[in-house]
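An instance follows:
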Amino acid sequence: MMGVNTYTTLIKSLDSRAFELLGIAIATYYLSVFIYALRWKIVLGGMGKTVPLTDLLKINLSSIFVNNITPMSRGGGEILRITWISKKHRVPVAVSTASILYERISEIVPILILVVLGVSYFATHLILFVMLLSVIVVVIWFKWDKIIRLSIRIFKVNLTQEDLVRMLELRKKPAVNILAIALSSMVWFLDVMRLKLIAMAFGWSPPLTFLSVVSLANLLFGLLAFTPGGIGIVESGLMGTLTYFGIPSTLAISVTLLERFISYVSSTVIGFIALMTSGGVEIWKALRLH
């Protein structure tokens, strides 16, 4: 991770317009966090559980902090989310785990859309690729129950038969599925737009198709990272991706620094504040003892 002096030098190089764009980029990040909380509330509601949106937002912010200081992407944060609503809102562990798993499954469609946008940056036969992905989406929909059951086995979620039926029946609730997929798609769009805004702060306006490639690469590096918050790995991966496509190294470093300032530095600070002020410290301490 770059030092404080590097960030200070970078900030001093920005003009007022750049700061405006950076402010909007920060806003898009926290709008994404809010959307994640809203999506979680909708999924939990579809499974018959009601948790206040403000509580879910605080839990999500706190989970980001835990993710940023513990090894492996999302590992500690997801455990915190599951434990928190199970202890404080009496949601069974199996149900809270299933709700998070369902969130992840709802991201399949937007990720496929992102893949299409990314491939369109290179492809000359985009129509054929879109048709192929359309077939994949249709297959996923008709094999939804099998995908759910397979995911449950892979992640070893111990659901009762009643909870399993409740989770499978979410497919029969169009409003829940449409909203979950739409909100997931919105998050990915905001992720790409955040990169766009950061790039524009340096006078560079890359096409969204190119940024879709970068966003996918960023996702991959984040999933493969084994360091807390992906420190070192995500930065190297993002800078490497940008320079591989011919972006000057100075610009690649600048974009990476600002992106990580938003998604890692600021989120760690805000997440810590949320954890300390929302009653999650006891839960986190209990998890650390196990």
About this structure: The mean pLDDT is 83. Residues 4-285 form one domain. Residues 196 and 205 are 7 Å apart (CA to CA).
